[in-house]
User: What shape does this take?
Amino acid sequence: MSTANIARAAFLPGLRAAGGVPAAVAGRDPARTAQYAQAHGIGRAIDGYQNLIDDPGVDVLYIALPNSLHAKWTIRALDAGKPVLCEKPLCGVLADTERVLAAARRTGTLLWEAFVFPFNLHMAHVRKLVADGAIGELREIQSDFHFLVTRPDNIRMSADLQGGALLDVGCYPVRLAQEFFGEHASAWAGREMGGHGVDIETWGSLGYGGGRRLLLSCGMRGGFDTYSRLLGTAGQIHVSNPFHPRPGDHVTLYADGGEPATWQPEVNEPAFTAALRHINGVLLGAEAPRFLAVETSLTTARALHDLAGR
Assistant: This one.
């Protein structure tokens, strides 16, 4: 749903690697949608989002619309019984997130928020290191997500479309910390505003029980950076790109008193692949669903809400 760049660059390669088929794409401009379908090997172009929801030849929907449209179209899809993978954040406003999750619970329709990194091999390796006590007790996570936006008309620069650095990329460090620390207890953030009423840079912290914390930095006017560190009582774990790892990205353990140990997966695949392989397995009845939005998304939304000072 949408002719967004994220679908072209990340979703479609992952879908094909996972064995899925891009059956159809829907947009508001028929000519542009048809061109997009032809250029990217998608089976059909469909005029209008509701027609895509109603199409019996589509098994599951990927919603890549601007944040401000997530709630409306996700709820419509859930009400129609169509499973959904919705781009992150699930919604740009906490109240909308609550409405969407209520619809998912009411209908029982499967819903995932498109944080795909919890499914990948890099995160599995980090989880194992932490669980095995390789760095002692995990006390602090330091995580960045920066990239450069040059076009002033980019949807990320629009407050009306619920853009901004925190919602677009700051959500990743928040979701990373949630993997290990759960629900936050305190929040603080500073920001620099720009574009059309959005934060173009945000930096801050989330506090968790027992004095554990996330220190985060995100922005849309610097070079690409997703470096993250996990600090424990007996060492550190450095992750070069935990969110969308590419060939060459690695996990390095710095255990106190030991030599650094670097790990890279033997198989590199598009970042969306593991998540989409899982969704395919669920739809085929071969796997039980994991990381459903009803289990994870409200905690993330509350943290983003508090960091934004709403």
